[in-house]
Amino acid sequence: MKTARLAATSASLNPDTYIYKILPINTDLVSISSDDFLRVIHPATLELCHTVHPTHDGVTCLSGFRDRHVLTAGRDGLVRCIDLRTKNATLELLEERKPPILSLACQENLIATGAELTDAQATITVWASKRPLLQYVESHNDDVTDLSFHPSRPSVLLSGSTDGLVNLYDTTITDEDDALTQVFNHGSSIAHTGFLSDHEVFALSHDEMLSIYDDTDSDIAEAPMRVHAFGDLRPQLQCHLHQLDIVPLHHGSGWTLDMANALRLPNAHSDEVARSFCFSRDGDTIFTAGEDGLIKAWQSSEEPTINTTAKILGSANKKRKKQDGPDKDERARLNPY
Q1: What is the spatial distance between Cα 14 and Cα 144, in angstroms, rounded to a whole number?
Q2: What is the sign of the dihedral through the CA atoms of 93, 28, 286 and 107?
């Protein structure tokens, strides 16, 4: 395992301000945080370029969109498209019931949102232009935590939920039963899901169970094929407090954790949870962000060996602020997993 060196650290945000997510957008680095600011950061120096506020009353999601535009969503039920040049919202979407939005995805002219369970419905809404194109309200029975569109089949949408299901939909079909083409029952609450290839889907649960599924068979009556079940990643990745490792997933005869090419970021965010990471456009720098309100830039002490097209897993033993049940403010922080 190689060790990265710390190249730069941003100025700290106000105390108790968490950075939820960072993304490279064109030549900038963009972040959202618990104070509901959207910040544009210079990636070379990590200096603040400008801010946009308020993005939402409880921002939850950030996604790249068209040139110099990003999408944000929040617990206020709103989706906004923000022009980073003018700092203005050029598009605003609001579902009638205003459920808190927990997940967001976009492609071409479609935007998909996944909602928190509200009034016994966990709604997925697909928007075209400014109007809802379709809604799925029965496929999940708990919070929709992750969404993504297929990389080469733009009408295919993937969803994950705390009900333990990962679903595939054909968004060209309006009837929900017919649109639901595949269901993967992961067996525990989904934190992240996405496409590894044209026909392979990964699912990572909140208790760190990772599996990869084959979606080649679109017959929902057939049991989906689990290509590889990694099980609990924590012992395999040798997680420790205050440690962040970037571990590639290698695809040879099958999927394996490539520990030989893992990169350790020592004492990444000290005692705080690392919420997000991303690569620079050239792949030479890794950016991390955490609940300490800092963004950090890291570089390998050797020549970079991690291909940015590889599928990456970040491992860190995540320490919660509170050990008792989450109150309203704690839920608003979002789940760090």
Answers
A1: 30
A2: positive
